[in-house]
Amino acid sequence: MSDRQVTEAMIANIEPQYIGTIKQTEHFFYGSNGALRKLRTKIKSKYPKAQFELEEGSMTVTIEARVDAEDLDELYDDLSACVGEAAIEYDGYGVSMCDLGPRKKRFEAFEKYIKPGECFAFALPNGCFGHGIFIGGSALDGHIFDFSRLISKTPATPDAINHAQSLYRQPVLGLLDPKIVIALGAPQEKASYPVMINFRVPFGVPALPEEIDAFGHKLGLAEASSDANFLEFCQRLQQAGMRLPNSDDSDKYVLETATINRDGKISWAPHSGKLYDFTVHHDKLPFLTVYASIENITEALVGSVDELDLLDKVS
Q1: 267, containing H or E segment
Q2: Does the bond joining 194 to the residue before it have cis omega, within 30 degrees of 0?
């Protein structure tokens, strides 16, 4: 199938009202960090408003574009030309039908405001405060947080946060704006480093929208793959004791271990264990690599849906 045929197939699956509108396109590149940084410079010179998520060996580039076959093809050709002869794999792109979400916002480095092992608070819509501990990380390697179930009328003390029950069974990845949290300092009982945390990383071919829609139809939900219905689809899956398509086999995931040193820097490495060694009890299963935001943590604490927990359980 040619590049143009791929684009036309994608356009065919987009609802007609979105054709011709400006949406976010996400482009996926794989290679060495040095090569990806050089590519980032090239793309930035052509698309000054592009946003970049550079991780170990991969980079996601977000660019606004018109949802039109010719415009998308032109953008694809431009980015392919930027890659040129570099040892980088351009693994295609996707079009997001939703507005710019919290994970795509560009925040200042969290570690410049709060040190690893320190606590913070954030305002909730009910006038109270939620809390967390920054475990460590960077913009390149990701940030890891231990969110708390503790809710208080005023920001709690670091010691109270340190001894409170965690929101999840382990620290999770997150992307938070450091300017909207309140730095509270470190508890008296200092965290012990290095910290090693296992994560469950999906790989391979994800479920296609039509596969998700077919599952949704069985559960009485139309257009389950749409942004508006996807969380409800996941809730119905959980209630039915089912999982997302392509999630049932352990070979759809790999285990990665994040090691955080005393300075808060993260190194990632494959875990030597097998996924099925963890699956006897779900509470032993390494958490899925989904990103927390202030918005979905707030919803988990005082709203009706815990998005991270839900995605973790049905994936």
Answers
A1: strand 266-270
A2: yes
Q: Give Dmax (Cα) for the chain.
A: 61
Task: Give the pair of three-digit tokens for residue 1.
Answer: 């199938």
3-state secondary structure of 238: helix
Neighbours of 209 (CB within 10 A): 14
Ramachandran angles phi, psi of 104, nearest 5°: -95, -5
DSSP single-letter state for residue 45: H
Going by C-beta distance under 8 Å and a sequence separation of 6 or more, which residues neighbour residue 45?
A: none
Secondary structure element (H or E) that encloses residue 309, with its range: helix 307-314
Give the CA count within 13 Å in the CB-facing half-sphere of 19.
Answer: 12
Per-residue pLDDT tens digits of the chain, which is 315 residues long: 445 666 776 676 666 667 778 888 889 999 888 888 889 888 888 887 788 888 888 889 988 888 888 888 889 888 999 998 888 998 888 887 654 444 445 577 899 899 999 999 999 999 999 999 999 998 777 899 999 999 999 999 999 999 999 999 999 999 898 999 999 999 999 888 999 998 887 765 556 778 788 888 888 888 887 878 888 988 988 888 888 776 555 456 778 889 999 899 998 887 665 555 555 455 567 888 888 999 999 999 998 889 999 988 887
183 backbone dihedrals φ, ψ, rounded to 5°: -70, 130
Angle of the 69-83 helix axis to the 3-12 helix axis, nearest 10: 140
| Element at 13 (helix H, strand E) | none
Buried-exposed string 225-236: b where 16+ CB fall within 10 A, e elsewhere? bbeebbeebbbb
Q: At how many degrees (to 10) do helices 307-314 and 294-302 cross?
A: 90
Q: Are 31 and 89 in contact (CB under 8 A)?
A: yes
Is the Cβ–Cβ distance between 92 and 21 less than 8 Å?
A: no
